[in-house]
Design brief:
mainly alpha, 2 domains, Helix Hairpins, single chain
């Protein structure tokens, strides 16, 4: 490694010196005569030298790429010529990596119906969630029961209020009836006594009959009023009981409703059934995360194992095969990969041949110009020698492959 780096540094120093020489000669040529001056040929020579240097650098890059492609082809050959047991172990490991990568992709694609806020809240209460769901369900059942009770008690309250008002109306009605009966009988008695005074008719029977009817009517009215009073008292008692029970049930309903609404707001759900569903989604997501972590750990294990297997083969670059897993499993994929590399190396070789031809043509043109003219700046010859040394060119030798 030190040898190649020092050699590279020497080339860089030599190239820098040539660049300085080019600059000096260009500045001298610029100060010379007209465009027809033979000295202007020196600029052409220098341009040719620069073209040779540029083509040589391109060739170096192509050669580097050629060597890399060749190393890849050698790696393919080494993999294909592995012993059966090692080749089986390599394919099994690569297949496991592909399977785990597919599992990770599928895991990332899974979407659970639970928001991040719900996940976080449930995560905090994870151990108590079954009890919380059961309590939420019981609260909803109890709330529904209380709602029915409230509806029933509201009906009872209304019924007894109507009953009370009806009895009040009957009390007033019978009071008016009693007063009417009394006035009527008093009027009748006055009429009878008046008739008796005027006609001296015996009215004792009629008076007795009127008094009897008056007594019976009064007694009936009294009985009815007494019954109405008792019924009114009973209605008031039942009404008060209904109001008392209604107040108690309302208090219970308010408390359980607050508990239900708190659970709804906390977990962003509409009812206990939805919370049960979200809880199941949470459990599925936790299992997905655990499987994802396990797959990641397994993928890391098998990736390291694959690197160790490839490293033991002695490949030029084992890391590149981590991105070519399918080629390690599928023989046809490996054949396609080899074909692409062979095609690529062929094109590189053709480009190298083109660069060699261009460099040699430029070098032959420099020789022709040098032979056609005798007077040059001294630096021109030195530059040509330096270019030949840097690029490996000469007037009589072709470029080495």
């Amino acid at each position: 490694m030190g040898f190649f780096s020092s050699k590279k540094k020497k080339k860089e120093i030599r190239a820098a010196r040539i660049d300085d020489a080019f600059n000096r000669v260009y500045s001298q040529i610029e100060g010379m005569g007209s465009a027809d001056d033979p000295k202007k040929l020196e600029r052409y020579i220098l341009d040719s030298c620069e073209q040779i240097i540029a083509s040589t650098k391109a060739m170096e890059r192509q050669k580097m790429e050629y060597r890399i492609v060749t190393r890849y082809l050698n790696d393919i050959k080494a993999i294909e010529n592995l012993p059966k047991e090692k080749a089986k172990d390599l394919r099994t490991t690569a297949s496991k990596i592909v399977e785990l990568e597919e599992n990770l992709v599928n895991a990332r694609a899974i979407q659970r119906n639970i928001t991040d806020e719900q996940f976080q809240v449930i995560s905090d209460d994870e151990e108590d969630m079954p009890e919380i769901i059961n309590r939420f369900t019981s609260d909803e059942i109890y709330q529904a029961k209380l709602k029915r009770n409230l509806s029933y008690l509201e009906g009872e309250k209304s019924r007894w209020e109507i009953e009370r008002e009806e009895l009040r109306y009957q009390v007033k009605l019978f009071k008016r009836m009693a007063l009417t009966i009394m006035v009527s009988f008093m009027t009748l008695l006055i009429l009878l006594f008046t008739m008796s005074s005027a006609t001296e008719v015996d009215i004792s029977v009629w008076v007795f009959a009127v008094l009897f009817i008056c007594a019976v009517s009064g007694f009936l009215v009294f009985l009815r009023q007494n019954k109405i009073a008792k019924e009114k008292k009973v209605a008031i008692i039942h009404l008060n009981q209904a109001i008392s029970m209604l107040n108690v049930e309302r208090m219970k309903y308010v408390n359980v409703t607050n508990s239900v609404e708190y659970s709804k707001d906390k977990y962003s759900v509409n009812n206990a059934a939805e919370l049960q569903y979200v809880w199941e989604q949470y459990q599925d997501k936790v299992r997905d995360q655990i499987r994802y972590m396990e797959n990641n750990e397994d993928l890391e294990f098998y990736s390291n194992k694959l690197e160790n297997i490839l490293g033991s083969i002695g490949l030029a670059d084992e890391k590149i095969w981590i991105n070519q897993i399918n080629a390690l499993i599928d023989r046809q994929e490996m054949a396609d990969c080899r074909h692409r590399l062979v095609t690529r190396r062929k094109k590189i070789r053709e480009r190298l041949d083109d660069h060699r031809r261009i460099v040699q043509e430029e070098r032959d043109e420099i020789d022709r110009l040098m032979m056609s003219h005798e007077h040059y700046l001294p630096e021109i010859t030195e530059i040509i020698k330096s270019v030949d040394k840097l690029c490996g060119t000469s007037s009589s030798n072709k470029l080495d492959a």
